[in-house]
Amino acid sequence: MPMQPEEIEDLIRETFPDAEITITDLAGDGNHYAAEVIDASFAGQNRVQQQRAVYAALKGKMDGPAGDLHALALTTKAPD
Amino acid sequence: MTMSDPIADAKTQIDETIKANSVVLYMKGTKSMPQCGFSSRVAGVLNYMGVEFQDVNVLADDAVRQGIKEFSDWPTIPQLYVQGEFVGGCDIITEMTLTGELDKLFEDSGVSFDKDAADKIREANA
Fold first, then answer.
1. Candidate from B75, B86, B87 with C-beta closest to A55
2. Residue ranges making up the domain that contains A17
3. What is the pTM of this model?
4. Which CATH number characterizes residue A31's domain?
5. Within chain A, how many helices (H) and strands (E) appear?
């Protein structure tokens, strides 16, 4: 089931209330998105730790053949 | 009570595989015939850089497909392992290729690769 960009942002926002979040629909099909998340909590974490936290925020939406999101290209970083 | 748990068995098998091979890519399809664009991109980078790696096709085994996600606490495929350590998925490997961090990881890990080819990827994406 396709997801709206707002749903993705809301889910991420629940875990990262103060983050700068940019969602881009890559293919226009509600199924291939890019998300950039910039959050102070990422300071000192490597990319795997940062992105694991974002995936956790998405609560299984990425998961498995039944996952709602086939493709979410993630970019994560701490604020400059 | 002893019951066979396919996911647990798969995780044991994953642990053995990533320890027995310097570079392992869990992917959809094989390195010669990837079946997903993200897997294809990472396999393509490794192939182009001349890195010898073991490919594991998660589409061939549902227990491995689920087990690898639990093993690394990472929900997506592909997943790259170097010297037994999870390095990242497609986005992270792409970023590390372009910044040169992947070169450094291979150098530090004693994995041979073609530095000129890596530079060519960066030039093409500059």
1. B75
2. 5-77
3. 0.90
4. 3.30.300.90
5. 2, 3
| Structure-block tokens of residue A61 | 């939406």
ipTM over cut 0.90: no
Q: Could you state, in order of their start, the residue ranges of all structural domains in chain B?
A: 6-124
CATH homologous superfamily, domain B6-124: Glutaredoxin (3.40.30.10)
pLDDT at A27: 82
Give the residue among B81, B3, B2 at the shortest CA–CA distance from B42: B81
Q: Does A67 touch chain B (CB under 8 A)?
A: yes
The count of CB pairs under 8 A between chains A and B is 30
Q: Which residues of A touch B66 (CB under 8 A)?
A: 64
CA distance B69 to chain A (A): 9
| Count of structural domains, chain A | 1
